[in-house]
C-alpha cells in the first residue's frame, strides 16, 4: 500500500495497517513501525503461536486440530493426535515444529494446525 514500508520479516510490499500495527498478508507478520519495525521483527518471529494464539516453546505437548495428509505417502495424521516434546525450528516453508509422531516417525508440522495441550 505504501512505497517505502515493507514487511521486515519477508520483504513483501503488500502490507496494510490494522489499528496501530502493520500486517503482512504473505507471512502473517505484525509489527509497529514506530517501535523500531526492523528490530521488533526478530523478536516477533521468534514467538511461535498455536491455532488458538498460545505461545509455544520447546518441549511442549500439542494436539493436532485437523487431519493432515503426509506428503509422499498414504498416511494421515488424525485430528486429536497428541504430540509430545516438540522442537521449534526456523523454517521458511512454514513448518516450524519438528516432532516425532507414534506410528509415523519424524516430521515437521505447521503451528497453525496444532493447539497447546
UniProtKB/TrEMBL annotation:
<feature type="domain" description="Protein YjdM N-terminal">
    <location>
        <begin position="6"/>
        <end position="32"/>
    </location>
</feature>
<dbReference type="InterPro" id="IPR013988">
    <property type="entry name" value="YjdM_C"/>
</dbReference>
<dbReference type="Pfam" id="PF08274">
    <property type="entry name" value="Zn_Ribbon_YjdM"/>
</dbReference>
<dbReference type="InterPro" id="IPR004624">
    <property type="entry name" value="YjdM"/>
</dbReference>
<comment type="similarity">
    <text>Belongs to the YjdM family.</text>
</comment>
<protein>
    <submittedName>
        <fullName>PhnA protein</fullName>
    </submittedName>
</protein>
<dbReference type="Pfam" id="PF03831">
    <property type="entry name" value="YjdM"/>
</dbReference>
<feature type="domain" description="Protein YjdM C-terminal">
    <location>
        <begin position="48"/>
        <end position="116"/>
    </location>
</feature>
<dbReference type="InterPro" id="IPR013987">
    <property type="entry name" value="YjdM_N"/>
</dbReference>
Amino acid at each position: 500500500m505504501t512505497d517505502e514500508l515493507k514487511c521486515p520479516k519477508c520483504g513483501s510490499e503488500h502490507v496494510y495497517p490494522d489499528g496501530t500495527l502493520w500486517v503482512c498478508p504473505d507471512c502473517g507478520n505484525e509489527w509497529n513501525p514506530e517501535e523500531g519495525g526492523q528490530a521488533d521483527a526478530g523478536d516477533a518471529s521468534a514467538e511461535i503461536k498455536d491455532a488458538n494464539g498460545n505461545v509455544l516453546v520447546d518441549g511442549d505437548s500439542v494436539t493436532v486440530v485437523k487431519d493432515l495428509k503426509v506428503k509422499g505417502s498414504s498416511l494421515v495424521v488424525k485430528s486429536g493426535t497428541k504430540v509430545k516434546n516438540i522442537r521449534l525450528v526456523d523454517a521458511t516453508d512454514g513448518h516450524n515444529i519438528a516432532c516425532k509422531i507414534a506410528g509415523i516417525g519424524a516430521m515437521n508440522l505447521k503451528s497453525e494446525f496444532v493447539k497447546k495441550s
